[in-house]
């Protein structure tokens, strides 16, 4: 289990992010239109997983906006923004914000959080997903991971994008 912080207090996750160089766990999420968002359907593409607690918080919303902006310039890359939010909340946010370059997906009925080791086990956010980023190359191998040290801060966008090269 990994350690992070929420408002300065240490908290743990359900496991560890997959190791760089390892095969990424497969995932099966729910899109904003209730369709499946599956890793198998993204085979051959580079994937950035922007993982966060809830789109209804400022930092999480900012991360979706930031990746949405940056995704427009990325070739053969899908950015999947993943939280435990219901698909309806994600759809409402994306519509209100004009989010069109990323895929918002809910892990509310999947094992995604446990498979990627990002379920928060402590803090008032227990049960939600820890803010993290996983970059997966075209072959399905993990090329970059970040578990942010403080859940209330943004991820390192530049390092995630740089890992695509």
TrEMBL record:
Origin: domain of life: Bacteria
An example molecular function term from Gene Ontology annotations: thioredoxin peroxidase activity
Biased composition (Polar residues): 1-16
Disulfide links within the chain: 60-94
EC code: 1.11.1.24
Enzyme class: oxidoreductase
Annotated spans, Disordered: 1-20
Keyword vocabulary terms for this entry: Antioxidant, Disulfide bond, Oxidoreductase, Peroxidase, Redox-active center
A Pfam family per the record: Redoxin
Transmembrane regions listed in the UniProt entry: none
Catalytic reactions on record: a hydroperoxide + [thioredoxin]-dithiol = an alcohol + [thioredoxin]-disulfide + H2O
Catalytic-site annotation from UniProt: 60
Function: Thiol-specific peroxidase that catalyzes the reduction of hydrogen peroxide and organic hydroperoxides to water and alcohols, respectively. Plays a role in cell protection against oxidative stress by detoxifying peroxides.
Family: Belongs to the peroxiredoxin family. Tpx subfamily.
General remark: The active site is a conserved redox-active cysteine residue, the peroxidatic cysteine (C(P)), which makes the nucleophilic attack on the peroxide substrate. The peroxide oxidizes the C(P)-SH to cysteine sulfenic acid (C(P)-SOH), which then reacts with another cysteine residue, the resolving cysteine (C(R)), to form a disulfide bridge. The disulfide is subsequently reduced by an appropriate electron donor to complete the catalytic cycle. In this atypical 2-Cys peroxiredoxin, C(R) is present in the same subunit to form an intramolecular disulfide.
Self-association state and partner proteins as the record states: Homodimer.
Name of this chain's protein: Thiol peroxidase
Organism: Corynebacterium poyangense
Upper taxonomic lineage: Bacteria, Bacillati, Actinomycetota, Actinomycetes, Mycobacteriales
